[in-house]
Amino acid sequence: MAKGKLDELRDQIDRIDDQILELLNRRAEVVKEVGRTKVNSSQEFYVPGREQAIFERLTRNTGSFPADGVRRVFREIISASLALEQPMKIAYLGPPATFTHQAALRQFGLSAQLVAQKSIPAVFEEVCRGRAPYGVVPVENSTEGVVSHTLDMFIRSELKINAEILLEIEHNLLSLTGRMEDVRKVVSHPQALAQCRQWLEENLPDTALVDVGSTALAAQMASEDESVAAIAGEVAATMYGLKTVKQKIQDNPNNLTRFLVIGRNIPAPSAQDKTSVMFSVKDEPGILYSMLKPFSNRGINLSKIESRPMKKKAWEYVFFLDMDGHVQDAKVAEAIEELRGCCQELRVLGSYARSR
């Protein structure tokens, strides 16, 4: 009796799967037409604001399927659809199985061609020379602060920010056996070790800690020696066939890293945007007030201000500022123009959909 009921339910699932596949094929035909329309009107293939709107609309689903699962499924549907329109080549700070790789997968899906680069300048170079339309680089971590190499590259490059990715950084202890008692050495990137220092002191106080160039290299080393454990993410575990000794060993549970998608153009406005600018100011009394006044007077929220020393002259600085709104919004445009009046140089780095 139970077997008959089970067979009936499985038949229902098969019929539903057939319907899903039929709808995916219908969707693919519409996507191809979208691609032809974009070519004819010289529009960008990749529109991150449109993707964000799709995710937000679909994750309002109140059914049994979890919202995170909806996002993951449609991430891959959109990725495969973009590949139908035009193959997507994405440069990212490698090697594979790092958190930047994980961020690129989350943004572009498995159907994109992800190409690892050895450095942040190399990612900028690939996009600048047109060898990849987009790149993914880290820009800041909630625990460790800004990635200075990325900010420095914006000083030298004309590339624009097209999107941001917020990735929760979960550090896992990984090994071949998955057993704590086998661990004699822990290897990882210095930042990962620092972010797990307290857990390591409490749980593996006498174990050697070794800095290596990346979490991916650490995972590779762990895959070659049962006595070595790596601190790395879930992609590294899958890629190198490792078992989890312990999940989420980072000391700060709210450990987020922000990544940027860089490209050559500024995307069109979406429902909720952020604009980033870079500028240097004249050294004079009251300059900080003059910098902030254009935004305060127009009620524009500033979500971040960061400074970097200029390489050309000591004690002069470049400022990086993030604000709510798109550069095409009248208030934002007016505030930026007013700010320009007290700057030696000002450049809009991008307007892009806010990651949520």
Automatic annotation (TrEMBL):
It comes from Syntrophotalea acetylenivorans. It comes from the Bacteria. Gene3D superfamilies: 3.30.70.260, Chorismate mutase, Periplasmic binding protein-like II. Keywords: Amino-acid biosynthesis, Aromatic amino acid biosynthesis, Cytoplasm, Isomerase, Lyase, Multifunctional enzyme, Phenylalanine biosynthesis. One of its GO terms (biological process) is L-phenylalanine biosynthetic process. It is found in: Cytoplasm. This is Bifunctional chorismate mutase/prephenate dehydratase. The keyword Lyase applies. Pathway: Metabolic intermediate biosynthesis; prephenate biosynthesis; prephenate from chorismate: step 1/1; Amino-acid biosynthesis; L-phenylalanine biosynthesis; phenylpyruvate from prephenate: step 1/1. Residues 89-264 form the Prephenate dehydratase domain. Pfam families: ACT, CM_2, PDT. It catalyses: chorismate = prephenate; prephenate + H(+) = 3-phenylpyruvate + CO2 + H2O. InterPro entries: ACT-like_dom_sf, ACT_dom, Chor_mutase/pphenate_deHydtase, Chorismate_II_sf, CM_dom_sf, CM_II_prokaryot, Preph_deHydtase, Preph_deHydtase_CS. GO terms for cellular component: cytoplasm. Residues 276-353 form the ACT domain. Residues 1-89 form the Chorismate mutase domain. CDD domains: ACT_CM-PDT, PBP2_PDT_1. Catalyzes the Claisen rearrangement of chorismate to prephenate and the decarboxylation/dehydration of prephenate to phenylpyruvate. Its EC number is 4.2.1.51, 5.4.99.5. PANTHER family: PREPHENATE DEHYDRATASE P PROTEIN, PREPHENATE DEHYDRATASE-RELATED.
